[in-house]
């Protein structure tokens, strides 16, 4: 994959193209495009573009969508509260479009492993497509309901994005290492108390509950103030730790 970018344009293309690129700022010859892996290129109108390998964020905004993805503001916070490290083995329950599975895979690295469990077959195909886009080899997609999934090896961290996480509390307890962390991504307040009561009864300690509100700012030569639009409620993040000492 290659990222073609300047101050007003950004798009990801294949490594090699079969015909010239005809974009709003001119034409880029396929021969010249195919010969450059990292550097500047001009259109026939003399407009400069940069060609480079796309980074994780570039690819994330190019993924195939199915169900609603967990936003970057929440994904980063979930990953940090799970304490993810290189080599971790992570279970993602309710894989959806696979965005947060890919987020986890990028952190745990080649020595780590992410298992994405998703019961919807169509969504599993979307996850596999997005995993291929990133080029990750450390993600395994499992097309099963979480209740039917089993593993001989325990996990270092687990994330759940399901409407009824309490139905799987016993399953999660059997899959997570003692002392390790669990996050629940929950959209509604009515799910918070139910989850708290059930998981705490199964040996989990509720450490934090967060809701992140993101406000971007406009900063230029003329203004410096918050933008009028902001990203408000997207979900609650419940942070548990499995602590069994009895």
Description:
By secondary structure, the chain is of the alpha/beta class. The protein folds into two domains: 53 residues, Vcp-like ATPase, Chain A, domain 2, CATH 3.10.330.20; 185 residues, 3-Layer(aba) Sandwich (Rossmann fold). The protein is built from seven helices and 15 strands. Strands 9-8-7-10-11-15-12 form a seven-stranded mixed β-sheet, with helices on both faces. Strands 2-1-6-5 form a four-stranded antiparallel β-sheet, with no helix packed on it. Strand 10, helix 6 and strand 11 form a beta-alpha-beta unit. The radius of gyration is 21 Å and the shape is globular. It starts with a strand and ends with a strand.
What percentage of the residues does DSSP assign to strands (E)?
25-35%
Q: Do you know the CATH architecture of the largest domain?
A: 3-Layer(aba) Sandwich
What is the 3D form? globular
Number of strands: 15
CATH superfamily of the largest domain: Vaccinia Virus protein VP39
- Under CATH, the topology of the largest domain can be stated as Rossmann fold
Strands of the widest sheet, in order across it, are 9-8-7-10-11-15-12
* Rg, Å, rounded: 21 Å
Q: Count the helices. How many? A: 7
The total tally of domains equals 2
pLDDT below 50 for ≥5 consecutive residues: which ranges? none
* Structural class by SSE content: alpha/beta
How far apart are the first and last residues' alpha carbons, in Å? 52 Å
How would you spell out the order of helices and strands? EEEEHEEHHEHEHEEHEHEEEE
Give the % helix.
Answer: 25-40%
The chain-level mean pLDDT equals 94
The CATH class of the largest domain, by name, is Alpha Beta
The largest pleated sheet is described as: 7 strands, mixed
């Amino acid at each position: 994959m290659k990222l073609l970018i300047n101050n007003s344009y950004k798009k990801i293309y294949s490594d090699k193209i079969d015909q010239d690129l005809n974009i709003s700022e001119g034409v880029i010859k396929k021969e010249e495009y195919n010969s450059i892996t990292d550097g500047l290129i001009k259109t026939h109108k003399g407009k400069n573009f940069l060609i480079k390998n796309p980074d994780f964020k570039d690819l994330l905004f190019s993924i195939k969508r199915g169900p609603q993805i967990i936003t970057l503001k929440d994904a980063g916070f979930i990953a940090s509260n799970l304490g993810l490290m290189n080599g971790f083995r992570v279970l993602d329950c309710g894989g959806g479009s696979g965005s947060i599975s890919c987020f986890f895979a990028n952190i745990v690295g080649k020595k780590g492993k992410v298992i994405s469990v998703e019961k919807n077959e169509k969504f599993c195909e979307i996850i596999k497509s997005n995993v291929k886009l990133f080029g990750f080899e450390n993600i395994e997609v499992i097309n099963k309901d979480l209740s039917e999934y089993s593993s001989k090896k325990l996990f270092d961290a687990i994330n759940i994005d399901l409407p009824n996480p309490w139905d799987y509390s016993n399953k999660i307890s059997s899959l997570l290492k003692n002392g390790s962390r669990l996050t629940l991504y929950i959209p509604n307040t009515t799910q918070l108390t139910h989850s708290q009561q059930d998981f705490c009864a199964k040996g989990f300690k509720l450490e934090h509950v967060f809701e992140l509100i993101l406000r971007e700012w406009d900063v230029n030569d003329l203004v410096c103030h918050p933008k009028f639009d902001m990203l408000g409620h997207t979900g609650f993040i419940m942070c548990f730790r499995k602590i069994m000492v009895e």
